[in-house]
Amino acid sequence: MALKTSIKEFSILLGDKESLLDNHFGHLAQKIELHWGYDEFYPFMKKLLLDTRNGNRAGLPAEVMREISDLYEIHEKKFPHKKC
User: Fold this and answer.
1) pLDDT band for position 55 (50/70/90)?
2) Whole-prediction pTM value?
3) What region, left, alpha or beta, does residue 15 occupy, with left being phi > 0 and alpha being psi -120 to 50 degrees?
4) Cα gap 20→6, rounded to integer Å
5) 39 vs 55: CA distance, rounded Å
6) In angstroms, how far is the first alpha carbon of the chain from the final one?
7) What is the count of structural domains for the chain?
8) Is the pLDDT of residue 52 over 70?
9) What is the pLDDT of residue 81?
10) Which residues neighbour 37 within 8 Å (Cβ) at sequence distance 6 or greater?
11) Span 4-14, mean pLDDT?
């Protein structure tokens, strides 16, 4: 299932736009969906948002990073008790 269809708040935020995570980074979208609502979500997302490879990471496009950041914020609001 796609992030846009499984997370209502994300769908509302995107509106008519398609999710770049869903369309071009399906492996990441699946992992985000797998961790959604669990304590493990935050460490996983922080690894995506921060360079933990000492500059050896190619990085993601800014628009994709924005989606990841938006999902992080949505999760914080929806599951505040899960944040480490």
Assistant:
1) low
2) 0.88
3) left
4) 15
5) 27
6) 27
7) 1
8) no
9) 78
10) 75, 78, 79, 82
11) 96
pLDDT at 54: 66
How far is it, in rounded angstroms, from Cα 55 to Cα 35?
A: 25
Distance between CA atoms of 70 and 68, rounded to whole angstroms? Answer: 5
- Structure-block tokens of residue 31: 């992992």
* Residue 52 belongs to domain spanning: 3-82
Query: What SS3 string covers the chain?
Result: CCHHHHCHHHHHHHCCCCCHHHHHCHHHHHHHHHHCCCCCHHHHHHHHHCCCCCCCCCCCCHHHHHHHHHHHHHHHHHCHHHCC
